Amino acid sequence: MQPHKLEKARDARIDMTILVDSYDEEERAMAWYTYLASALAFPFAARCRAKRAVSPLQIGDEVEVIGVAPEEECEHEMFVLMRWERHTLAVPLSQLAVTDVDDKTRQAVEDWQYWDDDGDSF
Predict the structure, then answer these.
(1) In the chain, which stretches have pLDDT less than 70?
(2) What is the distance between the alpha carbons of residues 66 and 43, in angstroms, rounded to a whole number?
(3) Nearest alpha-carbon partner for 32 in 16, 19, 15
(4) Among 20, 75, 93, 116, which is least packed, fewest CB within 10 Å?
C-alpha cells in the first residue's frame, strides 16, 4: 500500500484506545481483533482495493462482508468473512475498501488499514 501522511488523532486513538496495554504480538493481535469485532457493523459493502496472493478477489470486485474471521485466522493479520460461491471465505481486511457503511465501521476499517499500511505488525 501507499505510504500515508501522519494522522495524530488516529495515531492517538490507536495507541490509547485500541492497543493500550498490548505489549507483545499476541496481545496486539487480540486487541485489534476485539476492536474490529465490536466496531464493525455487519453486513457491509466493500470493494477490492488491492490484489493479494491469498485471495481470489480482483481489484474492483464488490463483496458483502458478513463477519470477522475466527480468532485463530487473525493471529498475524485481520481477516473478514464473505460469501464465495457456496462457501464462506476469509479475505484480508487490508484488501478491502468500504463503500456503503456507517461512520463507526468506516473508522474501524480505516484505523486498521492506516496501521497496517504503515508497516506496523503484531
Answers:
(1) 1-5
(2) 5
(3) 19
(4) 20
